[in-house]
Structures are given as structure tokens and as C-alpha cells.
Design a protein that fits this description.
single chain, alpha/beta, 8-stranded parallel barrel, 3-stranded mixed sheet, 15 helices, 15 strands
Length: 437
């Protein structure tokens, strides 16, 4: 049976015979055997075809071998079972970069594939992991672009087809949504990346689709709802994802609720232990990483919960402080807190210089590369957004920035222009130094 990448190309009416990609060779950043595309604007990749993206990834793959047909045996990069405790997590808002045609949003997984060549691959000593912001449909306005808060990614529907913002539903007779995700993961793997996705656990931000009536309100004390939550996540792991970023993880079991900004009840501590253990057990994957939002302070609490890492433990503005914590925690492998360049609540306003300094700290604040703390970045930290929007706005709303109702105009106007290219080149320089360590 043909692999999911070749099946995707066929479904898109493309030939599966691949050719070297001259665009990639002209925009190449090289760090030892590691290669990626740098000093670019995202729309330069997003306007290309999926086949162009596949040819790009085959052209720049670390092995140096060119495949005239995408190979069947591509494995996830091997950094051992504990890779997630020291990885760089880079969240890509796959809804924001989806194709926006009129008021319709679609095919975000295809856009994510096109952007992969510009994500720096993993280093010798630690992995880079792409986190997709959206997998499940949002509760209101899925498949549409509009500016109201009812279009938030933070409200999801389970027991429903995957988001119309993300999946190419025009080709599902030839390639299923599940195989579209598998194709994305295979392409990330050949580029030397791990992959994962964001999920939510606040009960009032989750609905259960019902074929016979309105959506059902989710309840953590309902065993059937808990079982559905587990099974939905196991399905995605079985498509090739290895990491789950858990929104509001700090507050599981009622911890520090005075700072809780989600809506609805959270799972109990023991209940979440069971859920994470079941996802591991049922998927059969020993390499899974569970990253918790703001899961900082009480390391044992999160280690015993089953998390692998957590965000925002150490501010990235003090290089020496981060380096000292890296030294203190260098023998920990089950749970290691991380450094946050920016998060999904980032409302912009941070200078390019500050972002670059934060990335520098995240990539270099250690004595030995194997002791590097995990870090968390957003799409904007690699590809700056236009001045009048920000990461959080794009999580809460889904505007089109197109001037003519066409996808290319949206992609061109979503991101910063010349200064964005210059910034992306500087990010590339930082990763180039880090990837050979």
C-alpha cells in the first residue's frame, strides 16, 4: 500500500515522481548536515504547491540522499524515550495560515506542510517539535474566517470530524483526514522534527457532537466523556504525533485556581494521572511527551502527574539564571521545567531584539547541550506577524487579511514584510550555531 505522502500527492492530482527543488537550494541555511530554508517570508512557501514542499523536504533532508519517490520507511527522529524533557516546542497556528477564500477557511494541514522546510530541524543533542494549534473543530464558526471571540480555538468539539479549518475535505474520498495527518507527520519526520498538538481540558470549553441533537456539555465526572477524551487523543498519537501540549495543566486537581483563566471544571489529579497513563498504554508509545502550560513550581506534583515538561518556569531574560537552573536539573529526565520565549497569550509589542535574546537564552544557556532546558516558542517567534495582530488574537479569532478574498493575499498580509525577512534570517543564524552542538 502506498504511503500517505504519495497518496496525498495523488489526491491533489500530482505525479509522485519527485525532482530536486531549486528554490530550496537557493534559500538554504546549512549547519553541518542540518538544512532548512531561511531568510524568507512565509507567503513565499505558502504560495507553492504541496508537491513543491515535498520536493523541498526531500532535497534538503539530512541524509543527503535524494528520493525520486517519497520513501515508505521514514521513522520519527530518535532521541530516546525522554526527548520531550529537553526539546524546543514551536507552536504553529495552522488555522491562521490556512487557505482563506472569501469567508471560508480550509486546508490548514496543507499550509503546515508547506511551512515545514522553514522550521529548523532538530539538533544533535535535542529535538525540535512542531505543535499544531488546531486539530479538533472549534465550537463556533469552524471552517469560517471572522473576527468574533466565538471563533476561539480554545473551544473544541469531540466525537466530530476533524476541523474544517485544517483538513482538505475536497479530497477525503481519496485520502482520509487521518491519512492527511499521517502525511504531515511523515514529512516532518524526514525533516528531522518531532510533532504534537494542543489540547484543552477545561470542561466548558469542550463539547461532544451528537448526531441526533445539539452538542452535549462535557463533564469530567462522566466516565463515558472521560473515555471519549482518551480515545480521541490515542487516535491522534497513532497518526504519528508524539507530543500533547495541555492548556491549563497547572490547575489540574484545583491547584492555584485564583490564577485559572479557563472556563469550567478541570480533571482531578488522580484522574489526569489515569488519563495520561492510558494514552501512553493504549498507544503503545514509550516516547510520548506531555507538556503542561504553566506547570511550574512544584516539580514533583507535575512529575507524578505524568507530565514531561512545563512552560514559563524560568524567565528567559536572564541568561545566567537559566544556565544555573540547567546545571541544577541536569540529572532530571522524567520531568524538567522549561523556558518560554512566548506563549499563546502573547499580545505582541515585544521588540525583535528581545525575542532574539530570549531565543538565544533558550538555545544556549547550559554547560553541555544535553542539559539544555526545554523551550516554548510560537510561530511569531520565527515568522513575525503584521504589526496590528498578535498570537493571542489569532487564537481567539480567525480574521482574513486578504485584500481580494484570495488565499495568497491573506498569506502575504498576515506576516511582517522586509523586517520580517531580516528577523527570520537572524533566527536562522541562532539555530545554525545551536544545531551543531
Amino acid at each position: 500500500m502506498t504511503n500517505s505522502v504519495n497518496k496525498l500527492l495523488t489526491a491533489l492530482n500530482e505525479n509522485t515522481k519527485l525532482h530536486r527543488d531549486s528554490f530550496s537550494e537557493e534559500h538554504l541555511k546549512i549547519s553541518g548536515a542540518k538544512k532548512w530554508i531561511s531568510a524568507i517570508l512565509p507567503f513565499e512557501l505558502l504560495q507553492r504547491s504541496v508537491k513543491n514542499a515535498v520536493e523541498s523536504l526531500v532535497t534538503i533532508n539530512e541524509s543527503g540522499e535524494f528520493y525520486e519517490k517519497f520513501p515508505d520507511n521514514i521513522e520519527t527522529p530518535d532521541y530516546g524515550d525522554k526527548w520531550g524533557a529537553h526539546a524546543n516546542y514551536i507552536e504553529i497556528n495552522n488555522r491562521a495560515i490556512a487557505e482563506m477564500e472569501g469567508n471560508i477557511t480550509k486546508n490548514g494541514i496543507l499550509s503546515s506542510i508547506k511551512l515545514l522546510p522553514a522550521i529548523p530541524p532538530s539538533a544533535k543533542s535535542w529535538a525540535n517539535c512542531v505543535i499544531l494549534s488546531q486539530i479538533f473543530p472549534n465550537i463556533y464558526g469552524d471552517g469560517l474566517n471572522k473576527g468574533g471571540e466565538e471563533n476561539s480555538i480554545y473551544g473544541i468539539r469531540l466525537n466530530a470530524p476533524y476541523s474544517r479549518n485544517i483538513i482538505d475535505y475536497d479530497i477525503i474520498d481519496e485520502i482520509s483526514p487521518e491519512e492527511q495527518f499521517k502525511a504531515f507527520n511523515l514529512l516532518a519526520h524526514i525533516h528531522g522534527l518531532k510533532t504534537g498538538f494542543r489540547t484543552v481540558i477545561s470542561a466548558d470549553q469542550i463539547k461532544i457532537a451528537d448526531n441526533y441533537g445539539p452538542d452535549i456539555v462535557f463533564h469530567w465526572d462522566n466516565p463515558q466523556h472521560q473515555e471519549l477524551f482518551i480515545e480521541e487523543h490515542v487516535k491522534l498519537i497513532n497518526m504519528g504525533f508524539e507530543a500533547i501540549f495541555i492548556d491549563s495543566a497547572k490547575h489540574i486537581g484545583g491547584y492555584d485556581l485564583q490564577n485559572y483563566t479557563g472556563v469550567g471544571a478541570l480533571p482531578e489529579y488522580g484522574q489526569m494521572q489515569y488519563i495520561l497513563n492510558e494514552i501512553r498504554k493504549r498507544s503503545g508509545k514509550t516516547t510520548l511527551s506531555f507538556a503542561g502550560e504553566k506547570s511550574t513550581g512544584d516539580f514533583e506534583r507535575y512529575r507524578n502527574l505524568g507530565l514531561t515538561t512545563g512552560t514559563a518556569f524560568i524567565p528567559p531574560d536572564n541568561f545566567d539564571n537559566v544556565k544555573n537552573w540547567s546545571e541544577k536539573l541536569k540529572y532530571d529526565r522524567d520531568y524538567v521545567p522549561g523556558v518560554e520565549v512566548s506563549n499563546d497569550n502573547d499580545e505582541g509589542g515585544r521588540s525583535y531584539e528581545t525575542r532574539l535574546n530570549y531565543i538565544n537564552t533558550s538555545l544556549f544557556a547550559y554547560e553541555y547541550p544535553s542539559d539544555k532546558l526545554a523551550s516554548f516558542m510560537q510561530m511569531e517567534d520565527l515568522f513575525p506577524l503584521r504589526y496590528d495582530t498578535n498570537t493571542h488574537a489569532l487564537m481567539m479569532t480567525n480574521p482574513s487579511f486578504s485584500t481580494d478574498g484570495k488565499p495568497l493575499s491573506h498569506w502575504e498580509n498576515l506576516f511582517a514584510k522586509d523586517d520580517g525577512r531580516e528577523y527570520n534570517a537572524k533566527v536562522g543564524d541562532l539555530f545554525a550555531h545551536a544545531l551543531i552542538l
